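Can't attach files on this board, so I'm pasting raw text. These are the components:
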Amino acid sequence: MLSASSLIAHATNLDLVVRHVLAGLGHGIHAGRERGAGVEFSEYRAYAPGDEWRRVDWKLLARADRYYVREAERDSHVAVWLVLDATASMAEPSRTIEGLTKLQYARVLLACVAAIAQRQGDAFGLVVCRGERADFTPAGRGPRQLQRVLARLNGVDAGGVLPGADTLRASLHFSRAPGVVCVASDFLDWPSPLSDALLRLRRMRHDVRALCLHTQAEVEAAFDTAPSYRDPEHGDVFYRFGSDVRDTYARNRAAHFDEVVRACRKNDLPLVQACIEQAPGEVLRAWLRAHIAGVRGA
Amino acid sequence: MSQMSLWWWALPVVLLPILWHRQKREQTKTALLASARFLPAAEPKMQRVWRWHDVVLMLLRCLLLATLIALLADLVLAWRGDTVLVVPGTPAAVVDREAAQRITLADRDAVTWLHAHEREFERNARLVVVGDAVMPAVLPRFRHAVALRTSAMPVAPAERHVAVFSDRADAWRRLFAAAEGPWHIVVDAVPGPRTDLVVWDRPDAPPAGLGGRLWHADGGPPRDADRARALFAAWQRQFLGPLPYTAPAQTLAPDAAAPAGPASGALRHWLGLALVVLFALERIVTHVRRR
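---
Top answer:
Structure tokens for the assembled complex are below.
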């Protein structure tokens, strides 16, 4: 049987992969709220044409001889926001598994989260950061929303750089309502507008869960020495990999991600680091439980 | 080969523009690496491909260098075929017997001219020298077959003016009148501008300011024929130099080992002109390309 990562690399049907990953993984994102106990009363408001008749409080009509409508708190179910970093650097392929990229892996995990949220009856929305834009799919519930989000995830290809701070602030207007924010990124840019936005959301008491994706080759600092390398996002500078710079690479990379981990820990933001060659089910479980375990390393 | 100029060894310099004008290409084999920022930056590897930019300019520069080298090496092209070398003064009837290209020499010294210009002749060119060519001191060696069809020409006696200051002027006149060969001596009473020789046969010292060459003659004119001949010979040796003999008619066999004469510089003028033109063109094209 194919390993789950290989499956991600070769499968085109995101729905199938999600089912495969989620098989036997029925854990939720957050502690479920008791539902169906009715909406909590908030206030009365004068009737306005267009209001549903069934929302008119008849007893109050009998007492006051006026039409009042019962205003209730909206469903307070937690909204799950899926934030996908689809910048050019997320196209980084696994150098061991043919056809597998960070973006594919991230999209599968986010699809899994969306499926879980849908099963729990939570609303979920999607923000795709790519090409200096943040494409926003409004939150919603139900199977059709899941299909919408899966289709959106399926259509994403990596390109461009992260959106600016202003764009992100405008896109993350959902931050007024409490929610779970699941971010999948490579966090190679840190600090970045995205990281600032995440920390800001965390300070606003949102449940932010970050997934930092690596590849096995990055962890082991093992790349092909033959070609010149270019950074997909930053200019036309050329880089060379060889045994002489391997230690430098490992040192720089470790320093960078140490900084990322330190910032996350300081802001109480659970961060899960994972290699895309790892089984997605385990990574998903680790990610969803990260808020229990605190900040964990891969 | 031994006679080739060493400048020809500089000919590989022409390759330099060809190398300089090769197109540069960035190394096409670049891969994207998301975490490349953790690597030290390196110079992009440039590949030169076997394609050229500014081909016109490159050709101009190559030509320029080649022309310069040819000029320095004093390129001589063997472009003359069978030729008749005509010594000036040769009767037309003699010249017309030879059916080949004619070159009229500047003077009688055909052998020296031929030495200087021998590289201009094709390998199998046959050379004929007609006229009253001068006989060289040693038998000349040429790489070509050279036929000397020489014939002495009667020389019109040259007039030489002599002024005699002597008590025995009659005796001197008789002596000069008896002169043979290319001599025709006119005795003037007083030295003029055309006077070659002034004979001073007086006991007192000659006054300053006598024109021509002054010749002290102690003891008067010679009295017998041998002495007179010796006197003329001395005159000729001292003032006119030896008279060249006419080279004997003969055919000189080609001698492959004969040393090639010095470069003639026959193309030097044209090469220099081409150099100037090419340089100007090169500058113009470079300037146009920069804009």
